[in-house]
Amino acid sequence: MMRWFVRVLAVMAVLSSAILMMFDLTPLMTRWSMSIGAAVSAGFARLSHAPLSAIPLLAAGAAYLAMQTILRPPPFELLKRAMLGAAFVLWGIVQMMPPSDLATGLGDLVITLYVVDLFMIIMTEVKRAHLVRVG
């Protein structure tokens, strides 16, 4: 059941990313072809950009977090993966929020999670590379 849930969220993340890109490319498409662009613009005019940018982030983060229940990585690896998944989920939440001090603070938290997660990955890989070279 969890594998199905992870797959659905992962597919949803990719598909919603494609929709987001189409939404952002609509003005360009209208210059290329007025008839196609007009039809696409009319369809996307009903949509707001905020949920379109939030859905791929929320789905990808939720899928990645849910996948950890299947993989059951060791504690340190789980911490790194949980930080990455949480960063995506929080980023999706921030996309839906109106500009405010809270949105800015959560955005800063997202940046911090990405930076600390990448730092932990870098340190782990540098240590692993050193051990391989020395060993």
Describe this structure in words.
The protein has helices at 2-32, 34-45, 49-71, 75-96, 101-134. It is mostly helical. Helix 1 packs antiparallel against helix 3 and helix 3 runs antiparallel to helix 4. The model has no long low-confidence stretch (mean pLDDT 84).
Structure summarized in a few sentences:
Helices cover 90% and strands 0% of the residues.
Distance between the termini: 42 Å
Low-confidence stretches: none
Number of strand elements: 0
Count of structural domains: 1
What is the gyration radius calculated from CA atoms?
Answer: 19 Å
> In percent terms, what proportion of residues is strand?
under 5%
Let me know the average pLDDT. Answer: 84
Largest sheet: none
Q: Give the CA-based shape.
A: globular
* Helix content bin: over 70%
Order of SSEs, N→C? HHHHH
Number of helices: 5
